[in-house]
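Key idea: predict the complex, not the pieces.
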Amino acid sequence: MRLDIEDLTVEYGQVAAVRGLDLTVGDGELVALVGPSGCGKTTTLGFITGFIRGRSGRVLFDGVDVTGMAPQRRGIGYVFQDYAIYPHMTVRENIRFPLDAAKTERKKAERDVDEIAGLMGVGGLLGRRPHQLSGGQRQRVALARALVKKPVILLLDEPLSNLDAHLRVDVRAEIRRLQLDLKMTTVFVTHDQSEAMAIADRVAVMSDGKIVALTQPTTLYVRPPSLFSAQFIGSPQINIWAIEGPDGALARDLARPLVSDSPSGLLVGARPEHVQVGSGELKATVTLTEPLGRDFLVHLDVGPSSIRALVPATQGVRLKVGDEVAVRIEPGHLHLFDAETGRRVEIDATGTRHLEENLEGKGGLAS
Amino acid sequence: MDLIRLSVVQRTLRLILIVLALLFTITPLLWIISIGLRPGSQAIFPISILPSSLTLDNVYAVLFGPNAIGLTPYQNAAVYGITAAVTTAIASSLGGYALARYDLKAGQAVLIVILALSFLPAASRIVPLFILLSASGHYGDPLFVTLAYAAGSTPLGIWLMAGTFRQIPIRLEQAARIDGAGAFLTMRRVILPLAIPGILVVATLAFIDGWNAYSLPLILIPKDTAQPYTVALQAYIREVGFGNNWSLLSAGSLVGLVPVLVVFALLQRRLVRVGGLGSAIRG
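Result:
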């Protein structure tokens, strides 16, 4: 089922939590809403369920306006961050509850419960009470309860954030596999950019109540359409140097191959993994090395500016604080942003600047 | 587990306070037992603290002896108690839910006024109630006396239920809605089962109020057969014991104590949990 949100604005008192948001999730698509806390992503989910009313805005399921419909009639499946499993019911009663509410015939209901519980791997836990379950098991029960009635749309609100780190990657993959199998239209809310990148068909980056980028994970990483999405996506965070300011010398040096005119009003960015250490024309001093396992994060000073570089561990172990090293960044790996608006800037062959207007990050020249 | 380590002095002080509080509450009870279960001849001055022999004669006399009050007044008291408990539980749940869940403009102020109301002594209501019931032609109707008691218990009940409902995560209600349950099913299958401990506490307190009702039935119910044991017992003592037969009075009171003690024994753990959390009385 296709989901459309049109021109949604939600205000809490004087504060606008969501401002003029538009979002379309295609049939069977998984869109991740990602952003820092308070950016309006959970509020947006609340509007889809009907618990939160907008100052303006509509929500449509397959083109049908359901904005005024009561939450219990929308047929949504929802997994809460804290699972919200009914503590006084057994696992079986929990999963069966949506079927009871729909007055499903008892025999068929029990069959459906057994089937979905088996699929979610909680078939052996049906007689247990919620307090006897581990976090991961609760999570599966919550998913089973959301899926048992074959919802039209699945909404997941930070479903992994209460899980241990080692479980998170497994459950993430499981959710994705299940979602692909069932071809379930899904909105996945998270504050974790790597989670969003890993699971989603498209990622919607939210900031301050607006979607500031909405595109495929790879595009978001390779051609971030705005400064905010560039900084939000990718870990360790992207290096950003302003042409105007203390980093000006370094920024101008880096931008020179790209920008023929005087490069004013620009921010220059490069991801740490694209900074090559060992050869190049920039002279840098190592100020700190952080072993991250497979890689080392190396902090470098070039004049008054600093650079974060990600280098292989084999190279990282040989670098000592105070070492003088040569550094270079391929011009093709540089990102330019407008200093005022934060929009991505592309420079065409004639040296003309083009401001990225499109949230999908495909408006520029290169596409 | 103590969250704060107390010094020896503090612990001794605490112990003394606990003992004093216990003495204050338990002594009258023990005294009634001591007087009620001793032969009437020993209940005169100079009086011994402990009886030399125990007997159930007094209890028998009150219930089945000549001119005895019998079981009817206790049955009446039970009806008052249970009706007051049920009415209070329903009214308190509805009011408490509204205060806990809806963002009422003056919600906090309403809660404080409600709590203040619950401190009004029953006696202060007698005259207005008398006028009200006389004028409306309901003077003497036990139903309205019960309602008056329920009305007296409901303020504290609303306060306790608001606390109980606040402890139930709103997410559970939202989950039920998303699962397709309407308001009624959500109430019946999710909210009420989780609110049962609080409801039991409120009902128990209201039951005890109704069971021990004295001043309102004394004044508002002229019919003897509808009186609860408290009023009947007093009339009986006036007739049979010439106003000061302490052993019969104590025996009658003891019978009245039994249901209260039984209810408390059954609910003790839940009462402590709701009261002890303190959060039930959080604004």
